[in-house]
Design goal:
The radius of gyration is 18 Å and the shape is globular. The strands form 2 sheets. Strands 5-4-1-8-9-10-11-12-13 form a 9-stranded mixed β-sheet, sandwiched between helices. Helices cover about 35% and strands about 25% of the residues. By secondary structure, the protein is α/β, with parallel strands linked by helices.
Length: about 300
């Protein structure tokens, strides 16, 4: 845990590793009609689960270093977008792969669901070794997502990054990111790679995929045996969280007029981390997280509007 007597800028610094995307977010103004036009709001935004979390952290006043990969032609554009959010970018430009792209179709009529058409592009060339020992030195926390394992050419190198961070006293948080990915990768294999993590942020579907259990309280208890801090998000029902040795904490979601749920989980992670690296209090962090997520769903795209 961060030393409360340390320099504030050092204690609060977070390193985020993972995906960067160009998002095309489509919000139809009614049911999608086949073979004809459907009036819609369409926005082009910068995205990516890890990059979104970094941008939210930056706007929350946390010092953030972000490591990721984009197409070479987009290096300056994505670097500038992250810097505008208060993030220090450490981007690699890939000469052969394009920047990852996602078309997000938001279905507010069908229960605030989304469909995502994804080309992962340069995210497949992510290199955990670009997180140097110098970059980890003095950081409070390393944050990464399950997509990092999907993208990595050798997923065990992500596990090695988790180990390297913990060996130098840096906390590690993991957003599993996708229940489908967990099922494809294998729950046991995924848990093996992140077994040294300090904090995990699964949603209920991901928690069920990781544990094989159904009841949220049982999922939380099972994950709590593996990780010091677990924050299990429940959508409109808020979050239940637990710090090892303490009781479960329940925090209700804040009512919001939902415009686009894209990035809600990323903003939740950012809100939790921003509080955690200051106070290491699971209740305060959960309250901060749901407040930030409530803001995020009122805007189109996964990042804060600057």
């Amino acid at each position: 845990m961060p030393d409360a007597t340390g320099d504030a800028a050092t204690v609060r610094r977070v390193v985020v590793v993972g995906d960067v995307f160009d998002d095309v977010v489509v919000v139809p103004h009614g049911p999608v009609r086949r073979d004809t036009d459907t009036p819609s709001s369409i926005r082009h935004t910068a995205g990516g689960s890890a990059a979104n979390a970094a941008a939210w952290l930056g706007t929350l006043g946390v010092a953030v270093d972000f490591v990721g990969t984009v197409g070479a032609a987009d290096l300056s554009r994505h670097g500038a977008a992250l810097a505008a959010a208060g993030v220090t970018p450490h981007l690699t430009g890939d000469e052969t792969l394009p920047t990852g792209s996602i078309v997000v179709i938001v279905d507010l009529e069908g229960g605030e669901s989304r469909s995502m058409l994804t080309e992962r592009g340069a995210n497949g060339a992510i290199d955990p070794d670009r997180v140097s020992d110098d970059l980890l030195a003095g950081a409070a926390l390393l944050h990464l997502t399950g997509y990092s394992f999907l993208d990595a050419r050798d997923p065990t190198r992500i596990g090695d990054l988790v180990r390297r961070a913990r060996e130098v006293g840096v906390d590690v948080s993991v957003d599993p990111a996708s229940s489908g990915f967990i099922e494809d990768f294998g729950a046991a294999a995924f848990l093996e790679q992140i077994k040294l993590a300090t904090i995990v942020f699964p949603n209920l579907d991901e928690g069920r995929a990781l544990t094989g259990l159904v009841d949220p309280d049982e999922v939380l208890a099972a994950l709590g045996e593996l990780f010091p801090v677990v924050a299990l998000t429940l959508g409109a029902d808020g979050v239940i969280a637990q710090q090892r040795g303490g009781p479960p904490v329940r925090v209700a979601a804040h009512p919001s007029a939902i415009v686009d749920p894209t990035g809600a989980g990323d903003s939740f992670c950012a809100g939790f981390i921003a509080s955690w690296v200051q106070k290491a209090d699971v209740h305060a962090a959960s309250e901060a997280a749901v407040a930030v997520a409530a803001r995020a769903v009122t805007m189109v795209g996964g990042r804060p509007i600057l």
